[in-house]
Amino acid sequence: MRITPLFRGRGAHAARAIAVGTVAALATTACIGGGGSSDSGRVEIRWFVGMGAGTDAPTIPAQEAVVEEFNASQDEIELVLEVVDADQAPNILSTQIATGDAPDIVGPMGIRGRSSFPGAWLDLTPHIEENDYDLSDFDQALVDFYRIEEEGQIGLPFAVFPSFMYVNLDLFDEAGLPYPPQEYGAPYIDADGNEKPWDIATMTELAKRLTVDADGNDANSPDFDPGNIVQFGFGNLHADIRAQSTLFGAGSLVDAEGDAQIPEHWVEAQQWYYDGMWKDHFMPNGPYGESDMLNAGSWFESGNLAMGNTHLWYATCCMGGFEGSWDTAAVPSFNGTTTAKLHADTFSITKDTEHADEAFTVLTHLLGDAAEELTTTYGGMPARISLQDGYFDRVGAASFEGQDINWDTAIEGMSYVDNPPHEGGMPNFLEAEAVLAEYGTRFTQEEGLDIPAELEALRADLQAVFDAA
Amino acid sequence: MTAQTDHSDAALRRRRRNLLLTACTTLGALLLAAVFLMPLGYGAVTALKDKDGVSDPNGSLLPVSALTFEYEGETLDVYAVPMPGGGERELALVEPGRESSTFVDPDAPGEGTIAWEGRWRTLEPVTGLAPQWGNFAEAWETIDFLRLMGWTLMYALTTMLFTVVSSAVVAYGFARFRFPGRGILFGLLMATILLPPAVTLVPKYAVFLQMGWIGTYLPLIVPQLFANAFNVFLLRQYFMTIPKELEEAARIDGAGPIRTFVRVIIPQAFPALTAVSLFHFFYAWNDFFEPLLYLAGNRDIVPIGVGLSYFSGVYNTEPHLILAAAILALALPVAIFLVAQRVFVRGIVVTGVDK
Amino acid sequence: MSDFTQAVLAARRRGGRSGRPASPMQRREARWGYAFISPWIIGFVLFWAVPIAASLVFSTLDFQLTDPDATAFAGGSNWERALSDPDTWSSLAATFRFTVLFLPLSLIVALGLALLLNSKYLKFTGLFRLLFFMPSMIPLVAGILIWQQVLNPQTGWVNELIGLTGADATGSDGIRWLDNPVLVLFAFSFIGLWGIGNSMIVNLAGLQGIPTELYEAAQIDGAGWWRRLRAITLPLLSPILFYNLVIGSVLVLQYFVVPWVLFGASGRPDGASRFLLVHFYQEAFVFGNMGYGAALAWLIFIVVAVLTGLLFGTARYWVHYGTERS
């Protein structure tokens, strides 16, 4: 998880002078005149939301309430909430950082958001030491998750989003199939009472039977019409190559020497996904996946997907109004190993903040007193161990009243997290991501690709990007 | 006598020809408009569906819903089921199964369930038109529509007024006066639209930041006081088509340049000024990125373009609500366009009289 | 006569005669000219001069948006990279391919619609004007959402309409508007033509400025529709057509929002949507490399400026201004 800052250490004095001459000069004067402290004599701390959860209309009032409550509770700091459309947030944040108008606190933000702004975050270590901030309520591994070589402790754990299988029970009932197991290690018991290991092969079989065309033929039937599918068996939601492949085991596209690699089991995974879309048709390919029928990408909530693999955030973001009945299931294993990938969110302080101490006060408030309220709003499991108890009761009461959803699956999945993490850093991160996105487009849109050859080409492209770092 | 018949014959033929041409033109325009507006039709229909209706793979084009029936606390869809003994019955689907399902008769739920062999997916649902007018209410409430409208209208109208007045003045300067450096200055004006706007975004933000304008409407409104290259160019082109004799006549009457501009040029250019006003109004009405950037995410004062984005999250969108809100937001511009059209028509009359 | 290049030439001529003092009349005219354009000059100095100069300076810097402190002087390396980057050339080619298709199409459609709406044979003109302008009022977010679904190969209305003729257009082996490098240009064109309202209204405003006596006279002379179009409408509308041509070229060469919202920087399909500005935007904002981005932007500026300059150069052969009639 090493992030190489792109232009660190190259800054000659002359160059810096020029930079100051253009933007920075404007920016510094602006900071004196512009932001800083508000009329009331309080220090203004700007909280930027848009790099993760928190931009959907229903989540905004709760965040406003947290701000209001905080401002009423003390008279040193004026906390200001800035909610920005998620698609535009990176542009706006980079414009603000470049002009010296950086917000003080950014979050909630996943690893991807953080990696998109290498070098922009404040090392919290001195503040943690100075304030004697108690970290014992966090899992040490999660704290270390945000300790980046050369950048330091750039965030503290706020929420975690384990992944699991979302299962549409109605579609299983319709097909007369028993539900997948909710306990890790438990077998799948089919309609005849036979026990099968809950692995990729068993899941594939199920998925094919749960893929149906308009005439009611399933994907195993010789009459099945792949041009007119109305229900799909399995889909990995909002997943790129790294997220998809992690179902077959954790891995990294960067080897120990920092070179590009495609792990052997990821090659297998990619072939399985590709065949699932284009040969066996139990997974939505590009055209199906972008259509209204599958909610233009938010597949599971359309009711036309039997099993969806994704994270806990999907429950609160998208499943609140679901009309059918759904439940959780364990992630199937591959070659005897189970991997349930993990997302984790943090709040970070920007390196350019003028009021690091006050920002740290706000940060600890968001991670502390406000965490219970905010984690419920964003749909993440609190990283604070003392808050995890009763968390799912609160979520259930808030969003899933009257539904009996087995959240233990989510908690149990935390024992199978991916290490190295699938969203981890890569040299030249943003450009490497662009290369992956380009591969992903061909993968989901084009039929008849030779996947091993495609992956070899991908590795070469990645290597070129890594070399340019 | 014969001459008169010939004459009325010719008149009749001409009238018939005109009528035919009118019918064909109007019909053609209607067809064209139908094709042209087809996507808008999709939008309107989607705005009237519920979320399930949008993703229903057997969904009809129209916002129809299956007729439903409440049975033992569950809402069931009603299908037209062909019965083994012949005939068809409208039954509610209790338990769908691949090859056999159970139904219940909505007219006689007391008689219990009916087992049926066959694939329910091949059945025709019994549907009725069920437009979800509630989408409009939901969209209205979720984003505090009236407040958005108020700010949007303020923003669109002030900037429209500013840009039209300043652009007309500047355009007249470029169109009718000779002065050293005119070519260079006009080139510079054009350069402001030839340079990709995104490249000046960061320094522009820095300028406004220095002025302390971030978080307010000032960066969006004030620059419009100083003309805009698109509008200046268009108005200059239009002014240059106006015959010079009119101005010369005014000048002989002793009118100065300002009077000539106000009394002669402005009335002549009414259609073009209306066009510029309309463009600017709709541009501002739908403006998204700049308000988002300069208003610094201040939800209380954003215009509607930004408000719409609250319906589209990172991982899910609410197409029916976005479209419902977009259609709601369309109402006012449509009204304004209809009013502006009258000005348009008056514009022709004015030019007709003057020429 | 009074177009851009002419004005430049005239200015140069005047410069040559600078020894001769201008007459009081000329000086008075110049003073009024400056007075009229002064709002723009003030605005330019206040809001444009610094950002434009700054962006030019950026192009010589190693300037990462997310880490402004680490900025370093880069000399001409950004420019060298911009010229040697294969993406620059392929995006230039993609932009020209689309320009060649869309620019003539949009000019013709905008003129055609304006002529139709100005026709005395059309009833309910007010309604039709509204109908054809309406898509231009739809917020872009909603518009693109609509088009994405209407053009979906699986469930889109366009393919289903084509399917009504008996052709099998739907599905991954059907007509994939957004995934074929040629078809996608047509998809962009549809979306572009949908927003043609502005050019249409500009043409309409121009048509309404043409004195009706001219047509009456021509009709008495027995000129048919086509001759009236060639001899009266097009020449008198030429300044407006010229505006549409110039602005249309600038906008199509800087075509960005639609491909960006649909495909991001992916260039899908096969680089066909990686236009010049998409390339710039990815470098400058996605990768945050504003130094390199600024060099690209100025390169785009040069391309667009040269083409616009050429258009202004041709203007004297076909653009007729009312002023000349006197």
Automatic annotation (TrEMBL), chain A:
Membrane-spanning ranges: none
A cellular component annotation (GO) from this entry: cell envelope
Location(s), subcellular: Cell envelope
A Pfam entry, by short name: SBP_bac_1
Keyword set, alphabetical order: Signal, Transport
Family: Belongs to the bacterial solute-binding protein 1 family.
Name used for this protein in its record: Sugar ABC transporter substrate-binding protein
From TrEMBL, chain B:
Domain ABC transmembrane type-1 stretches: 149-340
Gene3D superfamilies: MetI-like
GO-annotated biological processes: transmembrane transport
Membrane topology: Multi-pass membrane protein
Record bears the keyword Nucleotide-binding: no
TM segment ranges: 20-42, 153-172, 184-202, 214-235, 261-285, 321-340
Compartment annotation: Cell membrane
UniProt-listed Pfam families: BPD_transp_1 (PF00528)
InterPro entries, sorted: MetI-like (IPR000515), MetI-like_sf (IPR035906), TAT_signal (IPR006311)
Location (main, coarse): membrane
This protein's GO CC annotations: plasma membrane
Source domain of life: Bacteria
Coiled-coil ranges (or none): none
Stored PANTHER family: ABC TRANSPORTER PERMEASE PROTEIN MG189-RELATED-RELATED (PTHR43744), ABC TRANSPORTER PERMEASE PROTEIN YESQ-RELATED (PTHR43744:SF6)
Protein name as it appears in the record: ABC transporter permease
Species of provenance: Glycomyces algeriensis
TrEMBL record, chain C:
Keyword Cell membrane appears in the UniProt entry: yes
Keyword annotations: Cell membrane, Membrane, Transmembrane, Transmembrane helix, Transport
UniProt membrane topology term: Multi-pass membrane protein
PROSITE patterns cross-referenced by the UniProt entry: ABC_TM1
Record CDD domains: TM_PBP2
One example of a Gene Ontology biological process annotation: transmembrane transport
Domain of life, per lineage: Bacteria
GO cellular component entries: plasma membrane
Every ABC transmembrane type-1 domain range: 92-311
Primary location: membrane
InterPro entries xrefs: ABC_transporter_permease, MetI-like, MetI-like_sf
Transmembrane parts of this sequence: 34-58, 96-118, 130-150, 182-205, 236-257, 295-319
Keyword Oxidoreductase set for record: no
SUPFAM superfamilies for this protein: MetI-like (SSF161098)
Cell location: Cell membrane
Protein family membership: Belongs to the binding-protein-dependent transport system permease family.
Entry protein name: ABC transporter
Origin species: Glycomyces algeriensis
Upper taxonomic lineage: Bacteria, Bacillati, Actinomycetota, Actinomycetes, Glycomycetales
